[in-house]
Amino acid sequence: EQFDIVLDERTVEAVFAGDECAENRKSASTLVKCLAQAAKKTLIDFKDSIVKESPKNTSTDGDVHPLTSYVGNYIKYLMDYQSSLKLIFQESSNGDGTKSGLVSEISGLIHAVETNLDVKAKQYKDHALGILFLMNNINYIVRSIRSSEAKDLVGDDWIQRRRRTVQQHATQYKRVAWGKVLDCLSAQGLTSSVGSATEGIAGSVGSIGSHSSTTSTSVIKARFKSFNKQFEEVCQTQMNWAIPDKELRDNLILAVAEVLLPAYRSFLKRFGPLVENSHHASKYMKYTPEALEQTLGNLFAKKLPQ
């Protein structure tokens, strides 16, 4: 800010013109250089503090980390002094031009945050939560940059690359968090049993068919029971996780629903008839597709605006 004030006087040469002001001009010029060096050192020290920030300091719900929000706000603050920063880093960019010097500094701050976040994400025992943490934080960085003048410095390509990174984290989360649930809806290992069960139900294979029917129905019941357990555990856990960006939250829930609901409907249609007439059928076929969808809507609800 002090450097900005000096520059607003529109050059030391203009203010201290003439031979009689030579000494003052020299002193002012030295002051400007000192202020520029102080500004550079401030950014260097800040970047070092980001790198050294404890990796064990993580949020329990995968929310945006205070370090991320602080750096995002800091970059916005720097943009209030963009004209001064351009002059400072033009001087230190060794002829590469204004843009490369300042962009390098901004990119360095962001890279330091991302490196720290990667280490923090590895501290989570639940891999899916670590992925969610990265998704939330990178998304916050992108939104912060897009909403400030920094977007013109880093460029659209940089923003698009980070948005793809957010999407990659979302896809990875879906695979890691919901893989076991979806495995329960696989027909693998059930197809031949269902054939025997169908024959048994039709009474076409006598006592052997009847035994196969009992075994197959038991296997299907176990699969439904396993699905219920896995689904409920995931939902119960992730109700307490956070996605503060409502659009991101809604899109992620929709992405899960677009995979889970068709798989459940298919499983229900194919194997449901073997269970629906059995004793306590509702114990195994607990959910309609509509009930699943409604339950998914409760995910990441901990910090939703009231």
Automatic annotation (TrEMBL):
Keyword Transport among record annotations: yes
GO cellular component, one term: exocyst
GO biological process: exocytosis; protein transport
InterPro entries, alphabetized: Cullin_repeat-like_dom_sf (IPR016159), Exo70 (IPR004140), Exo70_C (IPR046364)
Gene Ontology terms for molecular function: phosphatidylinositol-4,5-bisphosphate binding
The keyword Coiled coil belongs to this UniProt entry's keyword annotation: no
Top-level taxon of the source organism: Eukaryota
Occurrences of domain Exocyst complex subunit Exo70 C-terminal (ranges): 11-296
Keywords: Exocytosis, Protein transport, Transport
The family this protein is said to belong to: Belongs to the EXO70 family.
Function: Component of the exocyst complex.
Name of the molecule in the record: Exocyst subunit Exo70 family protein
